[in-house]
Sequence to fold (309 residues):
Amino acid sequence: MPLVTSTEMFKKAYAGGYAIGAFNVNNMETIQGIVMAAKEVNAPLILQVSSGARKYANPIYLKKLVEAAVEDSGLPICLHLDHGDTFELCKDCIDKGFTSVMIDASSHSFADNIKITKNVVEYAHDHGVVVEAELGKLAGIEDAVNVSAEDSCYTDPAQVQEFVSRTNVDSLAIAIGTSHGAYKFKGEPKLRFDILEEVGRRLPGFPIVLHGASSVPQYLVEQINAYGGNMPGARGVPEEMLRKAASMAVCKINIDSDLRMAVTATIRKYFSENPSHFDPRQYLGPARLAVRDIVKHKIIEVLGCNDKA
Ligand code: G3H
Ligand code: 13P
Ligand code: ZN
Fold:
């Protein structure tokens, strides 16, 4: 089976009240850990590459690794560009064989966001590729995403119909209070489900995307802190909130930070217990299994997309 788009995945997810996991990938071990989990529980997958990941690994290596994952697993896998910020970047991924791209023009005005998104959609659709766009701004700092809490803003549901009909985009990321990274809430976690509900009412059957959806498990924070790390106050989106979003219009849930933490927690513990080891396979192997375990947990307990491949 070749790489697939997310079209069928989203149709089934919307109808079934579950979501597809979109996991960020940068290297072989992470890809293998995610795919092991999906294979064990027969789940469809979206593997996504940020521009930081492209710079780190070179997209051609990641594309070949994802193709190997398809061949190895036989699962439906969509290869997606995460947070593409220009037409040129999206075009390059489309030309290289990605089956889905995100154009994130959410930092531009509403009119410019429409213009830039529409351009990408036209090129992508001509090449059989689907497009995700973003309305509203999530806070957070990653390599390619840098929005302060003051500059973040919730999606205005009054804008979504016009945006979707004028751009012909295939899915839409909205801002309801999540943010990127491991420090999402200072006080009690709170998401604007009223906005999600209103967006769902205005766009019936249309797939919505939730970014910044790591739940930052406390056992990983504790393990990192216990072995020389320092992540006080790290806090993510409670799993029950993610389950609720998946039962509503959210069909794609983006997870990156939790996988990073699983890898880091495992390697920190490994070196503390085996200070003389220096063969990377000895610590990357357990890190790969930690990715497998957390992804399996997400698929079964949070996303609900097990047995949906
Ligand atoms: O949304 C951002 C993703 O977590 C990717 O992060 O830009 O550091 O690769 P990155
Ligand atoms: P997290 O930082 O919550 O994992 O979000 C990842 C993301 O939204 C990638 O686009
Ligand atoms: Zn994101």
